[in-house]
Amino acid sequence: MRLTSEEITRIAEFKGMSESDFIEKHTRLRWDRGGLALKEQPDGACIFLEGEGCAIQPVKPQQCREFPNLWNFPGFEKICHAIPREVSEAEYERRIALIKQQGNDRETSA
After folding, report:
1. Residue 23 belongs to domain spanning
2. Nearest-5° angle of CA 58, CA 89, CA 82?
3. Using one digit for the tens of pLDDT, what is the confidence trace for 62-83?
């Protein structure tokens, strides 16, 4: 899961860690070298997945909050217990617009 600097700050604070310690222990460079992402467990699961729950649920990254409603991958149901949540058409459009805006913000700040 990709992380923004704000998400790193929020999760580190939630875990009671400094940002540098959090980055060193729980993140890796993204495959495209475009920032940081959460490390995975050896089986590919999120490093913060504990049983069937998220250890950082109150502060989980935006990309996690959007899954599986706004993005997913074929066969995700076989390995992930996330339950899609139905939203109204207006809410769906609002969320898509927000994702597009965040993508544009990242491109203009690079």
Report:
1. 2-109
2. 40
3. 888 887 777 777 877 776 666 5
